[in-house]
């Protein structure tokens, strides 16, 4: 799927110290927990039971670890100016 090409990019709205550290194709199986998230690019509400992209951001200063959900690669392209 070529998700590694997004690593090191800076998402829209962040300064250049913040970069994509990890992208994973992801879904949750614990169906008892009704969890939703909003796509960081387009704002669409995502059902986390269904497949989506989980993006972890890293920061050079060490904080980082921020998690974002995205619909898919189209949104990730837009969000990271691909
Ligand atoms: Zn989206």
Task: Walk me through what this model shows.
There is one protein chain. The protein is mostly beta strands. It has one domain. The chain has 1 helix and 5 strands; from the N terminus they run βββββα. The chain has one helix at residues 73-79, and strands at 18-26, 36-38, 45-47, 52-59, 66-70. The strands form 2 sheets. It has a 3-stranded antiparallel sheet with strand order 1-4-5. A two-stranded antiparallel sheet has the order 2-3. A hairpin with a 6-residue loop joins strand 2 and strand 3. The longest helix has 7 residues, at 73-79. The protein is globular. The structure holds zinc ion. Zinc ion binds at residues 39, 41-42, 44, 70-71, 75. Zinc ion (ZN) binds next to loops. It holds the Pfam family DUF7576. InterPro entries: DUF7576. It comes from Halogranum rubrum. This is MYM-type Zinc finger with FCS sequence motif-containing protein.
| Radius of gyration computed on alpha carbons | 13 Å
Count of beta strands = 5
Determine the N-to-C terminus distance.
15 Å
Mean pLDDT across every amino acid position: 88
Shape: globular
Report low-confidence residues grouped into runs of 5 or more: none
């Amino acid at each position: 799927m070529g998700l590694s090409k997004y690593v090191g990019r800076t998402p829209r709205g962040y300064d250049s110290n913040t970069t994509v550290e990890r992208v994973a194709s992801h879904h949750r199986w614990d169906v008892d927990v009704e969890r939703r998230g909003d796509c960081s690019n387009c704002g669409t509400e995502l059902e986390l039971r269904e497949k989506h992209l989980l993006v972890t951001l890293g920061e050079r200063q060490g904080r980082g670890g921020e998690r974002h959900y995205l619909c898919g690669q189209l949104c990730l392209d837009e969000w990271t100016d691909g």
